[in-house]
Amino acid sequence: MKVANLTGIRGIEIQDAPDPRIVSPRDVLIDMKRVGVCGSDIHYYTDGAIGSQIVQYPWTAGHEGAGVVAEIGRDVTGLKVGDRVAFDPCISCGKCDQCVRGRRHTCRHQTFLGCPGQSPGCLANWVVLPADCCYIVPDSLTFDDAALVEPLSIAVHAVKLAGSLAGLSVGILGAGPIGLCTLAVARVDGPARVFVTDKIDRRVDAACQGGADWAGNPDKIDVVTSIAELCPLGLDVVFECTGDQAAIDQAVTLLAPGGKLMLVGIPGGHNRISMEINQLRRKEICVQNVRRQNECVDHAIDLIASGMVDIRYLLTHHFPFSHTRDAFELVAAYGDGVLKAMIELG
After folding, report:
1. What would the pLDDT profile of 295-313 be if each residue is shown by its tens digit?
2. pLDDT by residue (tens digit) across 254-297?
3. Residue 66 lies in domain
4. The domain spanning residue 171 has which CATH number?
5. Is residue 256 domain-shared with residue 332, that is, in the same domain?
6. What does the mean pLDDT of the chain come to?
């Protein structure tokens, strides 16, 4: 089969690899149809690492995917050949203390698709996953929709961790795909007002399209002052979706006493962030890290299928598999107004 391998900093090549085989009786072979390009993929592409997760080349990228079940292991139930599926790229052991406590996303022995040293990614013709990672999608969802389920499920998890947003003032810093998915899920929960920031005007516009009550570019206006004028008591919850130090500082300043800071974004190129402890302590700010998603895939599918969220406007670019490097370069450069680039296989 063909795979898209990272071959060095800003290097991707379509290469040959052995066809994957079902090993466990609970495995499923998936014929891949779509793979979305994620910000974490771009960190591996441009930096060769995220924190201690360092790419050893060549390495197959990709984890936001959708496809068709092509073969099932003898013990698989609930799935059959021909089913269209989205999937959770986190493969957990099901036995450790975290899994037993319902925290499969922090499994002690997990492997994750496309994560260096763990499981090769799904930018390939075929991928094998445990059946419990696979979720049937209804016929009303396209393969593009199904591939968007993974980032949407992260937003579902983030909003769930934040608690009810009904009637609250909410900030979302960063209007990339995760930030815009968070906006969509937050809107379902019924906040009073949602304020969104991003340094790219196209994304500011996208936030307005997605239902933000206010959106602004911090490179062009003082967003902290502007939001404070509209919400003088401060924001109740801020979802920080960039991993950028300046945005984290803005979030702490924007929050009202007793507010929640949800750290969703992944810092690129460094392992540390800092916060002004005086503000955190005096305002008794709660800081919550958000780790991928946990049992939120079904809910994400339902949100799309029911029409409660519409995130199809995120799909700004499509690329054939042979042009995977072009897709990564576009996303890395934030070029041509890109929000989500989707790679077509099959």
Report:
1. 999 999 999 999 999 999 9
2. 999 999 999 999 887 677 899 999 999 999 999 999 999 999 99
3. 2-136+311-344
4. 3.40.50.720
5. no
6. 96
Strand positions, DSSP E, the chain: 2-8, 11-16, 27-36, 49-50, 53-54, 59-60, 64-72, 84-87, 90-91, 111-112, 126-130, 134-136, 169-173, 193-197, 214-216, 235-240, 255-263, 286-289, 315-320, 340-344
Of the candidates 234, 128, 244, 164, the one whose C-alpha atom is nearest the C-alpha of residue 197 is 244
- In degrees, to the nearest 5, what angle opens at C-alpha 112 toward C-alphas 290 and 97? 65
Do 161 and 285 lie in a common domain? Answer: yes
pLDDT band for position 250 (50/70/90)?
very high
Residues 127 and 218 reside in one and the same domain: no
Report the domain count for the chain: 2
Calculate the CA dihedral of residues 123, 126, 130, 133 and round it to 10 degrees.
50
Pairwise CA distance, residues 183 & 121, whole Å: 28
Tokens, residue 256: 């009202």
Output the CA torsion sign for 17, 71, 23, 343. positive
Question: Which CATH number covers residue 17?
Answer: 3.90.180.10
Considering the domain architecture, whether residues 177 and 66 belong to the same structural domain is answered as: no
Statement to judge: residues 169 and 277 lie in one domain? yes
Same domain, 339 and 272: no
| Encoded amino acid at 262, one letter | M
In terms of Cα–Cα distance, which of 309, 321, 267, 319 is closest to 289? 267
Whether 247 and 319 map to the same domain: the answer is no
| HSE-up of residue 78 (Cα within 13 Å, Cβ side) | 11
Answer whether residue 145 is part of any domain.
no
Regarding whether 111 and 51 lie in a shared domain, the answer is yes
pLDDT one-digit tens code per residue, 126-171? 999 999 999 999 999 999 999 999 999 999 999 999 999 999 999 9
Distances, alpha carbon 128 to alpha carbons 19, 27, 67, 230, 330, in Å: 10, 7, 11, 50, 29
